[in-house]
Design goal:
Helices cover 11% and strands 44% of the residues. The chain is mostly beta strands.
Length: 133
């Protein structure tokens, strides 16, 4: 499957083809050199504020409780280039369906203070991603 910018894909079809966690915002394939990032406006109610800023996509890391750490999906984003993995961004359009935004490249991260699912203050990782296609 080749992804076409602006096309809408069923998320389950992406996972059937390439594997990866079907629930997480960051899904990395164990079979292919691919990392998928799924964003949704609904994330704002959980303290995530994914957005475009000055030509970069700012993507909030994963983790609902306590400080975010560089493990699992967060580590997959940070190390995607050195591990030879491509990074693909999808934006939710409706339940189960996502528009392909494009291929991205990790260029850095920042930290913000936010609240976890229990309302406690925590460190939030905010990735800075640059479009490459």
């Amino acid at each position: 499957m080749e992804f076409i910018r602006g096309e809408i894909y069923k998320r389950s079809s992406i996972h059937e083809e390439y594997a990866g966690n079907r629930q997480s915002g960051i899904a990395y394939s164990g079979k292919y050199n691919m990392v998928f990032i799924f964003t949704s406006p609904a994330g704002e109610e959980y303290g995530y504020n994914d957005r475009w800023e000055a030509g970069y996509f700012l993507y909030y890391g994963e983790g609902h409780e306590g400080d975010m750490e560089f493990s699992r999906g967060n580590e997959a984003i940070r190390t995607h280039r050195e591990k030879g993995k491509s990074l693909y961004l999808f934006d939710k359009v409706r339940k189960g369906f996502y528009k392909y935004v494009g291929q991205m490249q990790y260029v850095g991260y920042g930290e913000e203070e936010g609240r976890d699912k229990n309302g406690k203050l925590r460190k939030v990782i905010v990735f800075r991603l640059k479009p490459i296609d």
